Amino acid sequence: MEQEVNQHTILQAILELSTQMQVMKTDLQQQIEAVEARLEKKIEAVEARLEKKIDAVEKRLEEKIDAVERRLEEKIDAVETRLEEKTNLLQNRLDSVEQNLSQKIDSMDTKMEILSLELLETKADVRMLKRAK
């Protein structure tokens, strides 16, 4: 009988251990699920913060790019304005030089015409004098 009690006690102990193992297993599964849930929440929170930070960085970059574009456009406009002013100044100088040259050419042309006439008259006088001799 003692052997039956021992076997019965052993079986009961095994059953109790099995029940305790089941409880521990269930408890561990619940703890794991709770940890997983907390991790998922933390991951979602981190993702949300990262998304906000990324959005903020993108916004700052866009603002900086826009500012650089505006400055470049202003510089290009300033260069275009200076170029236009210099072009106009150069055109005015060119017009002045052209007008001055035109006047000098007209003056030189008139002088050449006068010299040609005087030379012609002088040659005519020389021939007449030669014939008269």
Describe what you observe in this structure.
By secondary structure, the protein is mainly alpha-helical. 98% of the residues lie in helices and 0% in strands.
Shape: rod-shaped
Which structural class do the helices and strands define?
mainly alpha
Beta-strand content bin:
under 5%
Q: Helix count, per DSSP?
A: 1
Distance between the termini: 188 Å
Extract low-pLDDT stretches.
Answer: none
Structural Rg: 56 Å
Report mean pLDDT, rounded to a whole number: 93
Count of DSSP E strands? 0
Helix/strand order, N-terminal first: H
Helix content: over 70%
Structural domain count = 1
Question: Sheet with the most strands?
Answer: none
Structure at a glance:
By secondary structure, this protein is mainly α.
Characteristic key phrases:
single chain; mainly alpha; 1 helix; rod-shaped
Task: Please give the structural blueprint.
Blueprint: H1 2-132
